[in-house]
Structure formats: structure tokens, C-alpha cells
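Contributing new records

If you add data, match the layout below exactly. Sequence lines come first and carry their own label; structure lines follow with theirs. Keep one chain per record. Anything else will be rejected by the validation script.
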Amino acid sequence: MKILIFGAGVIGCTYGWQLTEAGHDISFLVRKGKKKSIEENGIHIHCTDFRNGGKVKAEIVFRPKVLDILSVDNDFEYIIVATNNLHPEEVLSVLKESAGKAHILFFQNIWYDDLERISQYISPGQYFFGFPFMAGGGRNERGLDTIISGSEYSKTMLGEMSGEITPRVRKIADAMDDAGMKPFISGQIITWLLPHCAFIAGFSAGVLKAGGTMKAFLKNREIVREAIMAVRDGFHVCSAMETDPKKEKVNKLYYLPLFICIPIVRKVFSDEAMQAMFDGYLRNSTREVSRMLADIILSGEEQGVKTIALKRLQQDIIN
């Protein structure tokens, strides 16, 4: 399968590398000025792979095909958008002009304003959604430090807005399966994505307040409590905007009494791979977290929903 990945960060490179290893034809679209460096030096990946109950370390120089201009007459079957969400108009403008007939998979954190923005640029029939919950990590002076999770909770989420299980979703799921990236086709992907954004924002703010590592966060019961309350704030905003977080089983945890919820959260996130994914993400994504917090709080204000815990954590990490 011929796939273009928009963005050569941790997520794009980890999935692109694994899809390449599985025999798929992968190219990357990068910013002008970055193409030459990747062609000359490759992408240095330091990966810890926790799949199959193991912990396998690998160091490779990944040398994918690279583009810095996308032609409208391209022959890609899929374009996977694996950028952060800080400059959406820039990404969407390129896709509007040059995606051609490719199916577009948005593979990133999504909030309500993102859904509206995407619909203004791209025909609804051309795109669908997913989330790369199998991989994470960060960038440092060595290159990319990537994690591939082996947690039972980690999956590559995929789905259509309509909930229909279409041939294009099945086909990309098959490719993810080839790559060992545990695809899961959801019949309610938007109901999964929007509360997940609220969860990521609340928990990330808590981890940042605790010093930036999941280990320090889990040791501090009070900050864990604050983060859970912040997640609940985000869920209340989702409910006010007619998305019920409780339709996803995993979200019901955060509605439990705190004396039950806190120990379960601490146990679930004691998983080494999950901790490493979170820590790596936060080393490079504080601006994205700040944007998510601001978006959720603004939506709450527009809906008349109080977001006291979210605002408190937002202020704490600003200070």
C-alpha cells in the first residue's frame, strides 16, 4: 500500500518505520529545509518495544522517501496526518490544495473546533479519524526516543465519523495489523476522541505540575486527585456538547468515587511503557497541552460549564 505520512515526528516516524518493515510503500511530507537533512542523515530512532511481553531495544537509521512538496496528481492511497495540532490551518491548506484522491487519516488529538475547521477545508467523504495509542516518546539530541507499547490498553484507534465500518478503514487497519500496531476499528470514533482529548489535557497538566514525569505524578496522591477532577471537568464539557464520555467503557473509571478511582489510576499508569510514552510526549508537547487546556476551558465557558480544576491546573503549569 502506498502511504504518505504528513509529519516526521515521533508518531509519524514510529508508525512509518513499522509500516515500512511490514512491506508498505511509505513516504514522508516534511517542511521545506528538512528534506535534505533527512535524505543525507536519515532519521535516528532509538526504540524500546514492549510488545509481546518483552522489552526490546533497537537503534536504527531510518531512511524513508521524503517530499517537501505534494502534487495534486499524487498517487498515494492514504495520507496519514501525524503532526501536532499547533498549526492546523497550515496543514489543512496543503491538504485542500494537494491531497488529490487520497484518503486522509487524521491521527492526532482532536477537539470540537478541530472538527469544524477540518470540515471547512476538506470534503467530508475524504477523511476519517484515528489515534496512535500504540506509540509515543520524544525528541532529544540523539534523535527520536520512541516507545511501542505492549499494554493491554494500547491500540491504534480507527473509525469513520458516521460509525460505519468502511472498506478504507478495514484496509488501513489491515496495514496496521501487518505492522503489529494493534488496530481497533471503533463504531464511535468521535465519542472516543473528544473525551480522550479531555483526558490527555487533564492528565498531562497534572504530570507537568508534578515535575514532568509520570512516576513523580503517581507518587503525589493530591495531584492525581486534581488531575482526575480536571478530567471530569473536560468530560462535563463533552456532555454539554452532546458527546457522552460514558459511552466508552474506559471513561467510566473517572466517574467512580475518588477513593476507588485514584488507586486504579495509579495501578494502570504504573505500566513502564505507558509512563515512558507520557514522559516523552510531555518533553516536547507542553505548547500542545496548553492549547488543549485553553480550548476545553473556552468550550466550557461557551456552554456555561464550570472548569475549576482545569483552570487551576492551567494556572499552576503557567506559573
